[in-house]
From TrEMBL:
Protein name listed in UniProt: Radical SAM core domain-containing protein
Family annotation (CDD domains): Radical_SAM
Cofactors demanded by this protein: [4Fe-4S] cluster
Domain Radical SAM core: 19-256
Organism annotation: Serratia nematodiphila
Length: 394
């Protein structure tokens, strides 16, 4: 009898509590450390804290605790690595993480990994590791050479576009699936079609547009994003996607999320979930916060150690007001796009308790919902809609 069979026959002993529902935890192994100097960097601690890497003891305790805290019925547990620039942690760090995942993974549970990078440090060794372990890679690239180099320079203010393109080419050569993450702000509001066309031209088929977060360096550097510009940009992307016949060929997360949420009543994104608080973030010293964009004392949950189980910290995050109340604001209750918006991200809600992107979301979601409203919000409705889309595409 092999080890796997012996483990499967063991009577499970609950050494610590499990979460009532699956939760995600975004890990920042190098914290704010980065080789770029993005002018709108959202990381609020970037200037105040010395860059340090997560140590091996904490890494082992986190991986053990994160796996142990998931509900027993979980069949996949996803690790998300971000920064800063997470590749600065070194390839050995991720090899150790993968070994620990194998060590602690229960029988029948798949462990998956996602990593967000600026792409400039990728090489063949990284790509072989990602390919072997089926990492899902996100690459931050804001647009063509002019846009990228203006807003995402390196630490010395130099260009980063060519290095990022080399990284993307390596991912393609190694046949690694990747998506592009592009930050939208007022400075690019009139370039939606060109940014979309550029992303498709370099071979990206999975795209995500992220509205600027007004934190970190952005306000002092003069960056902003109005609701009108956010709506205008996303509507332009939607119309470009349709006019170029890319339905079913290019997947824009902001669009796909609406389709999924309309028919399933469940949001693939915490931003548009009815409640949030299930996406925690961990700094390299083990501090856990309830949200990546609410890293402050008010939303500090505790520390990733054995004293307080992660399931307890996850439950604490789910009960915080920011996540419980996000879709309960008065203006949301009478809004025709509430079913797919749910109030948006709490980090965009100002002191007046209004989401500063509200009107933009309304314009974008109204356009996407218009052709869906003829179909019931059910699996059967989704099948009818897909058949109609396929017929229209010829």
């Amino acid at each position: 009898m092999n080890l796997a069979q012996l483990r499967a026959q063991q009577i499970p002993v609950e050494s610590e509590p499990r979460a009532a529902a699956p939760f995600h935890l975004l890990v920042k192994p190098i914290g704010a450390g980065c080789n770029l100097g993005c002018r709108y960097c959202y990381y609020p601690q970037r200037q105040q804290e010395r860059t340090r890497k997560m140590d091996d003891d904490l890494l082992a305790e986190f991986i053990r605790g994160y796996i142990a805290a998931q509900p027993r019925y979980s069949r996949e547990i996803n690790f998300v690595w971000q920064g800063g620039e997470p590749l600065l942690a070194g390839i050995g760090f991720y090899k150790r993480a993968l070994a620990l995942q194998r060590r602690f993974a229960p029988p029948g549970v798949r462990i998956s990994n996602s990593l967000q990078t600026n792409g400039t440090l990728l090489n063949d060794a990284w790509c072989r590791l990602f390919r072997q372990h089926q990492f899902i890679i996100g690459v931050s690239l804001d647009g063509d050479r002019e846009v990228q180099d203006a807003h995402r320079p390196d630490k010395r203010g130099g260009a980063s576009y060519d290095a990022a393109l080399r990284g993307i080419a390596l991912l393609q050569r190694h046949q690694i699936d990747f998506n592009l993450l592009m930050v939208v702000h007022d400075g690019v509001a009139d370039r939606a079609e060109a940014i979309y066309d550029h992303a498709v031209a370099i071979g990206a088929r999975y795209l995500q547009f992220q509205p600027l977060m007004l934190e970190g360096d952005a306000p002092a550097a003069g960056y902003g994003l109005s609701a009108a510009n956010w709506g205008r940009f996303m509507l332009a992307v939607y119309r470009r996607w349709r006019s170029r016949g890319h339905v079913g060929q290019v997947f824009v997360m902001n669009i796909e999320q609406v389709y999924a949420q309309y028919f399933t009543h469940v949001s693939p994104s915490c931003v548009h979930a009815e409640r949030c608080g299930g996406n925690l973030v961990m700094e390299p010293d083990g501090r856990l916060y309830a949200c990546d964009h609410l890293i402050n004392a008010q939303h500090l949950l505790g520390h990733a150690d054995r004293q307080t189980p992660l399931a307890t910290l996850a439950a604490r995050a789910a009960e915080m007001p920011f996540g419980r109340n996000k879709s309960l604001r008065r203006e949301c209750q009478r809004c025709s796009v509430k079913s797919v918006c749910q109030g948006g991200c709490p980090a965009h809600v100002g002191e007046d308790r209004y989401n500063r992107l509200c009107a933009g979301y309304y314009a974008f979601f109204s356009a996407l919902l218009a052709p869906l409203l003829a179909y019931p919000r059910s699996p059967q409705g989704a099948m009818q809609w897909r058949a109609a889309v396929s017929a229209a595409a010829g």
